[in-house]
Amino acid sequence: MPISPRLKPAALALAALGVLAVLGGCATNPVTGGTDIVTMSEAQEIEVGRKMHPQILQQYGRFDDEQLQQYVSEVGQRIAAKSHRPNLQYTFTVLDGDEVNAFALPGGYVYVTRGIMAYLNSEAELAAVIGHEIGHVTARHSVRQQAGATAAGVGAMVVGILTGSGDLANVANMAGGALISGYGRDMELEADKLGAEYLNRIGYEPEAMIDVVRLLKNQEMLEVQMARQENRKPRVYHGVFASHPDNDTRLQEVVKAAGKVQNAEDRPPNRDLYLSHINGLPVGDSRAQGVVRGSRFYHADLGITLAFPTGWIVDNQRTKVVSYTEAKDAVMVVSAEAPPPGMAPREFLGRMLQGVSTTEAAPLQVNNLDGYRAVVRSMTLPWGNQGPANVAVVYYNNLAYIFQGYTRQAAGLSSFELVFLSSVKTFRRLKDNEFTAAEPDRIRVIQASNQTNIEQLARKSPIKKYPAERLRLLNDLYPDKEPTPGQKLKIVD
After folding, report:
1. Cis peptide upstream of residue 479 (ω within 30 degrees of 0)
2. Of 18, 58, 136, 256, whose CB has the highest number of CB atoms within 10 Å?
3. Same structural domain for residues 31 and 165?
4. Is 186 helix (H, G, I), strand (E, B) or coil?
5. What mean pLDDT is predicted for residues 312-318?
6. Is residue 160 predicted with pLDDT exceeding 60?
7. pLDDT (0 to 100) of residue 10
8. Which pLDDT score is estimated for 92?
9. C-alpha span between 345 and 404 (Å, rounded)
10. How much is the pTM?
């Protein structure tokens, strides 16, 4: 088969222009009133958001608190009604994630994590975060950014929209990853400006935008420090603060300009109301995700627990639990799925490993639960190389719990096998007295007295790492402030 020659840069540029000419067009920007070259109509933009929304919910999970969902939606709808695109059908969702983040899809889908809500201290600050994300929507940042993409990116995006064949990863390319990672300095600043303007329009002080930037910039600094110590990538928010500090001159200017515009109402920051809504908010893992205590994992809703090797790091993810050594040379992954009716563990494992050569296959009994195990002779390991792996499945309460173990340790799989099986054999039903341990840590709002100080609260807190620093961050007291008597405080217990 002949190999096609590569397109030269000039030819590639012409190809991109050709795609834009066919699929794109001109549209009036709702914010600036100027003309944008765009690759999709407003109807197509809305359709992209509509198709991606369920996938976002599947990936992150919707936080199970209808009162909080309603509260966030009410705040968001007030802002949206005063935005440059009030006729869009906006949807606001709190995601069940501890990461500090917020983002928006095209067409009016706006998301905040419970993780970012834990750090905010007033309704005005919540409105600042939401207003920033609405700013991305009203200015059509994802659409405008896509207009500058490569021909391949444009083509893939449009095909996904028009045919419905694009998955979340493909469709997300329309924004060049900006939905999660940010849009670049100028667009982020424009979203800040619009967010501050919308704050002012509904009666909040636009300076709440700067308060959020300062608060979350402090959180980012500690997160980077913790990530460095834990040998992982920091989990930081892309939006309001990523591209500039709180004393950034341009940020100060846009917020000041927003405050000069006459507004029709004067709304208080509603600190007490906001704190009442997040009282009881999970910190870290939620009940729906299961809870990690040291090396042991608990899940109250599923009624199960298991322990990983002592000293291993445990990462509780949305659809699986991953544990690994500090050197990352051995990994265990635990997930679950419903087996077909009547299918025994042996058949389930056989179907899962279909076409893969195995050895040491044998029945497995784990705390009176039926299972099956095998060693896979060769498969692609997490490090990209080929090698053997341990696999086991245990049935409980109509679910198949799947255990996978990999190692690149010099001693090889045979020595790791004992570690793997020892962990699998800790899997069992929760005892009646263990359901309390399966409950997540939660925010509780208290009132500071004359004797209240952060170090005292930190000693009583279940927060294991940097408890004093994190409590100060939660209450906008970072790095060394103390609460004043009568002040409402967020603690974790």
Report:
1. yes
2. 136
3. yes
4. helix
5. 92
6. no
7. 32
8. 98
9. 15
10. 0.84
| pLDDT of 149 | 47
State the DSSP string of 60-122.
H-B-S-HHHHHHHHHHHHHHHHTSS-TTS--EEEEES--S--EEEETTTEEEEEHHHHHH--S
- Residue 67 · residue 107 · CB < 8 Å: no
E strand or H helix at 352:
helix 345-352
Residue 219, classed as helix, strand or coil, is helix
Q: How far apart are CA 268 and CA 205, in angstroms?
A: 8
Domain that holds residue 479: 441-492
In this structure, is residue 4 part of a structural domain?
no
Residues 397 and 474 in one domain: no
Name residue, tokens 């009132």.
447
Residues contacting 186, CB < 8 A, separation 6+: none
327-364, pLDDT tens digit by residue?
999 999 999 999 999 999 999 999 999 989 999 999 99
pLDDT digits (tens, 9 = 90+) for 24-64: 456 667 775 555 555 678 898 999 999 999 999 988 899 99
In a domain, 3, yes or no: no
Per the structure block, which two tokens stand in for 129? 């975060």
CATH number at residue 428: 3.40.1000.10
Sign of CA dihedral 442, 444, 450, 451: negative
| Residue 469 CA: distances (Å) to CA of 215, 234, 237 | 13, 17, 19
> Tokens 């424009």 map to which residue?
190
Number of structural domains found in the chain = 3
Q: Do residues 63 and 118 make contact, with C-beta atoms less than 8 angstroms apart? A: no
Q: Determine which helix (DSSP H) or strand (DSSP E) holds 142, and give its type and residue range.
A: helix 141-146
Mean pLDDT of 283-288: 94
Sheet with 313-316: list strands edge to edge.
313-316, 321-324, 330-337, 399-407, 386-396, 369-380, 358-366
* Residue partners of 333: CB distance under 8 A and separation at least 6: 320, 321, 322, 403, 404, 405
List Cβ neighbours of 349 (8 Å cut-off, separation of 6 or more). 361, 372, 373, 374, 391, 392, 393
Q: Which residues contact 78 (CB under 8 A, 6 or more apart)?
A: 127, 202
Asked if residue 412 is part of any domain, the answer here is yes
Under 8 Å between Cβ of 130 and 110? yes
Query: Are residues 149 and 65 both part of a single domain?
Result: yes
